[in-house]
Specification:
Distance between the termini: 15 Å
Largest sheet: 8 strands, mixed
Number of helices: 14
Structural class: alpha+beta
Radius of gyration: 24 Å
């Protein structure tokens, strides 16, 4: 379907208005401007009247919104889901060269928080459905457009949407959410652009290690203060890396990147895992970064709290850790492992305990041998001919992990080209998206809808 010049201007205008809605989520409800969220939901009705005329709409949870477009098959027990989130992370303007919620167009770029994450995909999805319905399209199976406003804070709305599907006995055969993108230099030695489609994601755990020592006046400190002992625990925790694990998504990634590598050594290394795993493991430990994270549960120490005063010894020192769990790892295993490391570091000099404040286990692996995967690959190739397509392990968490409770056909792909600079703007400063990229993303969704 051809996107007219008038359609392009509408798409750009709608996106600008979405950005102007300050839908900033927060763990503390009292700090959320819920009027901005309602303003956004009202804007959707205004921008997409044909969608709302042809859908069954319902609110689920605190911020979940669901649009059901009935399919022509008459089978109400099978469905496809397109999803995104409309909440954004805070942007106070510090370091920005423009208003974070400007929602304007300068030099062909739509500027503002949420442009990339993920009002861009939400906008493109709805624009494509609006255009398709306008031209007489109907999906074969029921199509659900499901958006939440709590993804950035791991809120419950998406999980409640999944509960709704489960409770109503609906089999979800295909889920598409944010995730990978069309990227350049996706892998050392691979020159072609590649569509990176997330077929699994790591779990995420927020955990505190609390060391309880001896309080008192700083003028007469003990041999081991709680802060000092907590520091020893941190050193041991950082030093004790988890063993490497080759998940199915990582093996599939290497299977694509090996044969398509222009560097002979890397082509051999990643194309012959049966004998090269020890070398890759060693390289991951030396290089760190993405390669290490692909093969290991990672542990990042991000917070350290002691006394609020310089001259007071704290009773407790608290260390905040974010673990990204891989493969067979779990919250329970991680909790036991971290506690063991901390106790061995501290010894008998203090009490140690661990508190998990929030967590999710690694997702299940999505099927890449099914018709739904082939359909997605065909759509990607139709939209971007002559590119590689590869499954990969997503490091970040997304709302789509909740759907893994009811289906193994969850795919994480944002349907747009992202340069490294673009990817660095997600949750960063001066977030923006080019008009050309946004319109191309609409084209991707149009091609997808034609096959659903």
């Amino acid at each position: 379907m051809r996107i007219s010049e008038a359609d392009k201007q509408k798409i750009i205008g709608d996106m600008c208005r979405m950005i102007q809605c300050r839908t900033v989520s927060n763990l503390d409800d009292s700090l959320v401007d819920w009027e901005e969220f309602e303003k956004f939901r009202a804007l959707l009705r205004e921008c997409f009247p044909i969608v709302y005329k042809n859908c069954e709409f319902r609110r689920i949870g605190k911020s979940g919104i669901m649009h059901k477009i009935s399919g022509t098959s008459g089978d109400s027990k099978h469905a496809a889901v397109l999803m995104a989130h409309y909440d954004v992370v805070p942007a106070d303007g510090a370091g920005w060269s423009f208003d974070p919620f400007a929602g304007d167009v300068v030099d062909g770029m739509i500027r503002g928080r949420g442009a990339m994450d993920t009002k861009g995909t939400l906008c493109a999805c709805l624009e494509a459905v609006e255009l398709s319905l306008k031209n007489g399209w109907k999906p074969v199976k029921d199509l659900y457009l499901c958006f939440s406003g709590e993804e950035e804070i791991n809120g419950s709305s998406c999980s409640e949407i999944v509960d709704w599907f489960k409770n109503n006995g609906i089999t979800v055969d295909f889920v598409l959410d944010e995730g990978g993108a069309i990227v350049e230099n996706a892998f050392p030695g691979v020159k072609k652009r590649c569509a990176m489609v997330g077929t699994a994601e790591k779990g995420s755990v927020y955990m505190d290690v609390i060391v309880r020592g001896k309080p008192g006046h700083a003028s007469a400190p003990p041999v081991n203060s709680s802060v000092g002992l907590a520091s020893k625990a941190v050193c041991r925790i950082e030093k004790k890396a988890c063993k490497a694990e080759y998940t199915e998504s990582v093996k599939k990634l290497f299977k694509v990147m090996g044969p398509n590598n222009s560097i002979a050594a890397l082509k051999f290394l990643f194309g012959n895992l049966w004998c090269t795993k020890p070398l890759i493991n060693l390289a991951s430990k030396i290089l760190g970064g993405d390669l290490f994270a692909l093969l290991h549960t990672t542990t990042a120490v991000t917070k350290f709290e002691g006394s609020p005063s310089y001259n007071v010894l704290p009773l407790e020192a608290r260390v905040g850790i974010n673990l990204r769990l891989l493969g067979s790892d779990s919250i329970e295993k991680a909790e036991s492992r971290i506690l063991s490391h901390a106790k061995k570091a501290v010894g008998k000099n203090a009490e140690v305990r661990v508190e998990v404040t929030n967590g999710s286990n690694p997702s299940r692996e999505s099927d890449t041998g099914c018709p739904e995967w082939k359909m997605l690959c065909d759509v990607i190739h139709e939209t971007w001919p002559d590119i590689l397509i590869s499954p990969y392990m997503m490091m970040a968490c997304s709302d789509s992990r909740h759907y893994c409770r009811i289906t193994d056909k969850v795919y994480r792909f944002s349907g747009m080209f992202m340069s490294r600079k673009d990817r660095n703007m997600i949750h960063g400063i001066d977030e923006r998206i080019s008009c050309e990229t946004l319109v191309k993303t609409v084209d991707f969704y149009l091609n997808l809808l034609a096959r659903i």
